[in-house]
Amino acid sequence: MTTEIAARAGMSHLRYAQCWEDADELREALDVRPGHVCLSIGSAGDNTLALLTRQPARVIAVDLSPAQIACLELRVAAYRQLAHAELLELIGSSPSARREALYHRCRPLLSPAARRFWDAQPGDIAAGVGSAGRFERYLAVFRRWVLPLVHPQSRVTHILAPHSPGERAAFYRHEWDTWRWRVLFRLFFSRCVLGRLGRDPRFFDYADGPVTSRLLEQTRHALTDLDPSVNPYLQWILTGRHHSALPLALRPEHFEPIRAHLDRLEWHCGAVEDVLETLLPASIDRFNLSDIFEYMSPAGHAALLERLARAAKPGARLVSWNLFVARHRPARFGDRLRPLGALAARLHAQDKAFFYTDLVIEEVC
To answer: Helix or strand or coil: residue 315?
Structure first.
């Protein structure tokens, strides 16, 4: 069964070398409990691994892209083979001159397909595997060539340092939010450039409303209302590594819990629809759906939602993000899916992956 996403864009190359949804918000939104069975979009692997910190009985990761599965496999091997500090070096969160050696310690645990993929990427391994995706390369172009035209390094360092909300707002207003910042931001994060360099142009087929003005306002929110000093996603965007903050799966307190439960994780390369066909009805407790509905037509969204609802246990939760496309349960699902709007609004207001316009949490009645 061919998914609508696969028909829209090729999946042979690595799109995301990191997960760009806030795992802290995901974990609270899903409320995974010991014994739960979870279905998770694989992506780069970080958020799928983060679910293991709650000791579910089983986590089923699925992704259309063999490259994304290779990314997940390498992370699993790194948790098994490396110490925590070495994992951070391999990812690129911290500096390292020995990433090739670290990779070769992980390599024997990879499948032949994953080995072939990473053996062909020596430059990405040397730079840190968290930099290897199309989206991360797009952010690197912004960081290296666009940002220096607007702000000196001292200003970037200042905005990422701890400050009070009032100090952050004043600095943004007087020092950061210049006409040059607004002009270059609107150019670089336009629908055209973002589609050509960062995402696939066809992923905007169902986008509605202005793209750049929305992103600019959400960036202001992240730099002022939220605290950049504890935001790993913002730190990577502006500096190319993590400094005073790490995503949930990379924090030292979660390293051993994840490693201890890796045997509860399985992964499948294919469409979500195909994996759902192999599952018993009413067998899944929690669904991490990333932003997959973003790329679907309304009819495709409803059809997949129907299948997900069939696979869900009563009380199951489905969590997804909207970026440029509004996707919520259609009215005909009103007696089957209940939106948890208050919880979603509270979590979205503090979402460190600030560029999403909406967090959607729905519970099976």
So the answer is: strand
What does each C-alpha distance from 33 to 58, 266, 286, 359 come to in angstroms? 11, 18, 9, 21
Q: What CATH number is given for 4-67+248-364 in this structure?
A: 3.40.50.150
* Overall average pLDDT of the 180-201 stretch: 85
Residues of the chain with CATH 3.40.50.150: 4-67+248-364
Residues near 124 by beta carbon (within 8 Å), at least 6 away in sequence: 17, 131, 132
Residue 167 Cα distances to 163, 306, 350, 353, angstroms: 6, 48, 19, 22
Given this model, what pLDDT does residue 203 score?
64
Residues forming a β-bridge with 58? 37
CB neighbours of 191 closer than 8 A, spacing ≥ 6? 204, 207, 211, 212
Q: Contact 356/291 with Cβ under 8 angstroms?
A: yes
Pick from 135, 180, 156: which is nearest to 19 by CA?
135
Q: What is the spatial order of strands in the sheet that 358-364 belongs to? A: 265-269, 58-63, 37-41, 284-288, 312-322, 358-364, 337-339
β-strands 284-288, 37-41 pairing: parallel
In tens, the pLDDT along 91-140 reads 999 999 999 999 999 999 999 999 999 999 999 999 999 999 999 999 99
Q: Which of 311, 235, 314, 316 is nearest to 279 (CA)?
A: 311
Q: Are 360 and 322 in contact (CB under 8 A)?
A: yes
Both structure tokens of 38: 């979870």
**0.90 exceeded by pTM:** yes
| Buried-exposed string 242-255: b where 16+ CB fall within 10 A, e elsewhere | bbebbbbbbbeebb
Q: Cα(197)–Cα(280) distance, rounded to whole angstroms? A: 40
Strand 284-288 to 265-269 pairing: unpaired
* DSSP calls for 216-271: HHHHHHHHHTS-GGG-HHHHHHHHSS-SS---GGGSHHHHHHHHHTGGGEEEEES-
Distance, first Cα to last Cα, the chain: 28
pLDDT per position as a tens digit, 15-53: 999 999 999 999 999 999 999 999 999 999 999 999 999
